[in-house]
Amino acid sequence: MCRWLAYSGSPVTLDELLYKPANSLVMQSRHSRLGVEPMNGDGFGVGWYDGHAPNPGLFRSVEPAWSDRNLQELARHVRSGVVLAHIRATTGTAVQQTNCHPFRHGQWLWMHNGVIDRFLELKRDLQLAVAPDLFPHIEGTTDSETLFHLALSFGLTDDPPSAVAAAVGVVEDVARAHGVPFPVQGTFATTDGRHVWAFRYSSEGRSRSLFRNADVTVLRQQYPDNPVLHDLADDTRLVVSEPLGDLRGAWLEVPESTCLVIGDGVDELVPFAPRPPG
């Protein structure tokens, strides 16, 4: 379906995240190892915070990530301590810029790997649950953007885990009325530029893959001669659809039905479950 990464830590250039790892996100756009399909060529996007404006920068394109020279240029020069990046494999909606992730609202970014099953049947009822003042800001046609605006409607900016639980709860409630047994599949990430929240959940209990990096200081002790680890800051936190390399012990799977909270150089795993309406 899609592949994504979320980074929090000391500022790095985007190419350190998107191009330089052995199994980089750009590499995954052609040769994904754990995705539903190996090719993720239906567009890409990257959002970042650099302190120059209250809201994040955003660059999205319908070009395949592996061949976009503008992305290469941008990645060498943009430096940030919080980054969301996404490569897209459409599940049926159009290949257009407004359907590329991450999605932005104010200082918030959002991205998703997965699907809302039979979304076109559910779309009208789901979008009627979006707050009236937010509805005009839905620009594209994806299930992911609708889910983002549902989360915003239920208080994403105040309590992200609770808001996402309510949004997913609404989707499952609407789906039941339409006879869709397992509507939600995916991994989600959102950030306000200070903290990152990542979710792994599916209605069926068989979510798409999601990993986080192990503590860098521990890895240095295990691999004292590895030069890559000495270039990483202690506060490096990465959440990825699939590992960026093959170093044993470097990547930890995020459990099913879990919310990962990252901020201030630490991370916390907490259980996640949808909250039914009412």
Automatic annotation (TrEMBL):
<dbReference type="InterPro" id="IPR026869">
    <property type="entry name" value="EgtC-like"/>
</dbReference>
<dbReference type="InterPro" id="IPR017932">
    <property type="entry name" value="GATase_2_dom"/>
</dbReference>
<dbReference type="InterPro" id="IPR029055">
    <property type="entry name" value="Ntn_hydrolases_N"/>
</dbReference>
<dbReference type="GO" id="GO:0016740">
    <property type="term" value="F:transferase activity"/>
</dbReference>
<feature type="domain" description="Glutamine amidotransferase type-2">
    <location>
        <begin position="2"/>
        <end position="278"/>
    </location>
</feature>
<keyword id="KW-0808">Transferase</keyword>
<keyword id="KW-0315">Glutamine amidotransferase</keyword>
<protein>
    <submittedName>
        <fullName>Glutamine amidotransferase class-II</fullName>
    </submittedName>
</protein>
<dbReference type="Pfam" id="PF13230">
    <property type="entry name" value="GATase_4"/>
</dbReference>
<dbReference type="InterPro" id="IPR052373">
    <property type="entry name" value="Gamma-glu_amide_hydrolase"/>
</dbReference>
